[in-house]
Design brief:
Interacts with C3b. Interacts with C4b. Interacts with moesin/MSN. The chain is mostly beta strands and about 220 residues long. The protein has one helix at about 20-30, and strands at about 45-50, 60-65, 70, 75-80, 85, 95, 100, 110, 120, 125-130, 140, 145, 160, 165, 175, 185, 190-195, 200, 205, 215, 220. The protein is built from one helix and 21 strands.
Length: about 220
Amino acid sequence: MAPPSRRECPFPSRRFPGLLLAALVLLRSSCSGKVCHYIPNPLHGQAILANGTYAFGNQLHFICDDGYYLIGEEILYCELKGSDAVWSGRPPICQKILCKPPPKINNGKHTFSDAEVFEYLDAVTYSCDPAPGPDPFSLIGESTIYCRDNSVWSGDAPECKVVKCRFPVIENGKQIAGFGKKFYYKATVIFECNEGFHIIGSDTIVCNSNSTWDPPVPKCVK
């Protein structure tokens, strides 16, 4: 951000050549000697002088501690107002980062569900309810999300639903890992072809969230 315009200290005009160089130096010295008043660190933050002094023309930068965000101008400038050196604005403040409660989900819940507000880096973990039928609910997505520095959650809420893939069958080949009678979310199966056949596709497949194998079940061909 460009600094706001500042009034410079008055210097003698070229229309008055009779003024001595010493007078010019004195005027410049009186201008550079002007300082802005001290501003302390904001609560839960820091005020950092760009050049180490409060002299006219310098800048004061503000940052907040982790878990807080800045309200107001990030940089103040020491400038002239009349014959006085003053800051270009009011000092900012550091406000605590807070998140609203995360979304509720169907067929599941999250920890700390009775809390009305969450602070920076507070986390919740989702879990699925017992399913009413023979197949369990699977948690689709990240089980844990946390309150981020922009007052939003780190990700979308997950989903609880039944995910069940068909029994994988491969002709001229066999399953060598991932045996089971039922294949739920993220179940992994590995195949190999019979002697004299080679595999087309991937030898490893995974049951994905829409109840299909990814990649598709491979083929064994001569």
